[in-house]
Amino acid sequence: MKGMGVRSTIEPVPAPAPDGASRSTGSGDENGDGGGGGSRSEHGDAVGGAAGPGAVGPGAVGPGVVGEVADPEAARRRAERRAARITSGARELEQRLTDLLRGGLAAAGQSGYGLWEETAARMVDAQAPGLAGRVRELGAIPGSGPGWPVRLLEECALTHLLDRAWLTADRLPAPFATTVRTRVGLPSPVAGTPVRDHWLVLAQYDTGDARLTTRRVWLYGTAGGRTALVLSYGAAGRAPRLSLPVGAVLDGELTPHTGSGQLRAEPGEHFAPVAGPAAPPPGGPVGAALDAYGSALREDPWLDAWPVTLRDVVPARAEYGWQLADADGREALPLTPDAQSRPGLWRLVALSGGAPVTVFGECGHRGFTPLAAWSPEAPAETVPLV
After folding, report:
1. Around Cβ 8, how many Cβ atoms within 10 Å?
2. pLDDT tens digit string along 46-58?
3. Cα–Cα distance for residue pair 382/182, rounded to 1 Å
């Protein structure tokens, strides 16, 4: 993945707040929220829950959070109680999905959102905010327009997969078991080795819901070739405190979170600006971007999108909307509906002027979301698209 700028990735983000927006790609997203508490994005941690070292399954919920009391036995008991509640919630959700499929997907369009919201509330009671977020999305799909039964079936399958993964997590490889725990809504531990580098700020954007504003900052290590995501949080309607200027180069450390398929990392205390511009991440054609996303899905099937850099692509209109096409015309990626409605699209079109450009963004099952671009005339000038 080095050619795509995403091969050796840091796994980032703090656990101080749930990543409720990780299910949206724009995202995602990883997750992920993508969505109210959990997601395929990238990225679905939530507060609460702790467990002793080496925890890998429903009976052991993961490492403790900052400020955990010193009594390991008490922490273990709390973790076991929470794991038992999540297991109960996962079994109840399995029954809800079974009833839905037995009754036929058409019935989901008639039953309304209330039953799904009740199920989501039960997942919250079970201390599984990730499952609650997925349930809320299931409830919203019947009103999402033509083709909703196909989308509902897809999301039901992914939710069922997450349920079964949780219920059998003690038999999963440790990294994947950690990913499952973060997807149901438990914090992912910060346990990697700090990585020092000069980090180029690729993009920064906010998503939010009624409870929380989540800021996503994408960084690229100019020496190590790592791509990392740093999350920060604020109250609903308020911007998070962390703000990094797009295009800046910062000298500092990032500490990765554990778990397969994640990109989250925590910044160290000292993050200082470095003079001088930096070149964009090394990129590749559309086919390489799709390969990178497909490889990431093997480690995290609930991933909404994956960060990639496209080299020598041209924005062009197609019958179904805008796309980014290889300069040689071999392959193209459609832009997500959200990306096509943003002013950044026209900034990208103007920057290109019909000529190939380099674009960083998130590649997922909904399409590609461009976040930053560079023109051949000014390869060290990062142009934000969000």
Report:
1. 13
2. 333 333 323 334 4
3. 32
Question: Exposed (0-12), middle (13-18) or buried (19+): which is 150, by Cβ within 10 Å?
Answer: exposed
pLDDT tens-digit map of 362-386: 999 989 999 999 998 998 899 999 9
Closest residue by Cα to residue 262 from 5, 8, 7, 12: 12
pLDDT per position as a tens digit, 213-239:
999 999 999 999 999 999 999 998 888
pLDDT of residue 65: 40
Mean pLDDT of 297-321: 93
Beta bridge partner(s), residue 251: 198, 272
Residue 192 near residue 255 (C-beta atoms within 8 A)? yes
> Contacts by 52-55 with C-beta closer than 8 Å and gap 24+?
52/76, 52/79, 55/79
In the three-class reduction of DSSP (H, G, I as helix; E, B as strand; rest coil), residue 123 is classed as helix
CA 89/CA 263 separation, integer angstroms? 28
CA distances from 317 to 301, 304, 370, 372, 386 (A): 31, 24, 15, 19, 20
Pick from 57, 305, 9: which is nearest to 184 by CA? 57
Mean pLDDT of the residues in the chain: 82
User: DSSP letter at 336?
Assistant: P
Number of residues written out for the chain: 386
**20 close to 209: Cβ distance less than 8 angstroms:** yes
pLDDT, tens only, 136-162: 999 999 988 888 999 999 999 999 999
Alpha-carbon distance of 376 to 351, in angstroms, equals: 10
Token pair in block for residue 128: 């599984």
Q: Which of 341, 344, 378 is nearest to 358 (CA)?
A: 378
Q: Contact, 48 vs 32, CB < 8 A? A: no
Of 89-103, 253-267, 309-323, give the lowest mean pLDDT range: 253-267
d(CA 159, CA 170): 19
Q: Contact at 8 Å (CB) between 268 and 254?
A: yes
Cα–Cα dist 151/10, whole Å: 31
